[in-house]
Amino acid sequence: QVQLVESGGGLVQPGGSLRLSCAASGTIFTINTMGWYRQVPGKERELVAHINIGGSTHYADSVKGRFTISRDNAKNTVYLQMNSLKPEDTAIYYCNVDVYRDAYDPLRDYWGPGTLVTVSS
Question: What Rg value do the Cα atoms of the chain yield, rounded?
């Protein structure tokens, strides 16, 4: 199994910054794509950003220029630096990773429990 532990959420004023972290542990051979999604109650979960094993990144249009995703492969950890936060960024943020547990295992998808980000004055 693979476990994901997220940290870094909280309350921040508009214009402020937060850094989310997500550490993966357990039976891991290789982590392919790592990403962050967010969800507001009553709405579908949406992609915020993802980064592949080679370091290529993709961002939702709504966060381009404000958020930066990065990863530390030695620590099996993905980060999301969020700057210039807006009230509409308020959501539960979920970490997502695609993992090969061994050289012969199919790619498996795992989700973290979520961390709440609230942007409010």
Answer: 14
d(CA 66, CA 28): 31
Q: What span, in angstroms and rounded, lies between the C-alpha atoms of 86 and 38? A: 14
State phi, psi for 89 to the nearest 5 degrees: -85, -5
- Please identify which residue in the block is written with the tokens 């099996």: 76
Provide mean pLDDT across the span 12-22.
98
pLDDT of amino acid 53? 93
DSSP string, 48-70: EEEE-TT--EEE-GGGTTTEEEE
Q: Tell me which residue of 81, 115, 111, 119 sits closest to 6, measured CA to CA.
A: 115
- Summarize pLDDT for 21-59 with one digit per residue, the tens: 999 999 999 999 999 999 998 999 999 999 999 999 999
| CB distance 40 to 116 below 8 Å | no
Yes or no: say if 38 and 48 are a contact pair by the CB < 8 Å rule. Answer: yes
81 contacts 19 by C-beta, under 8 angstroms: yes
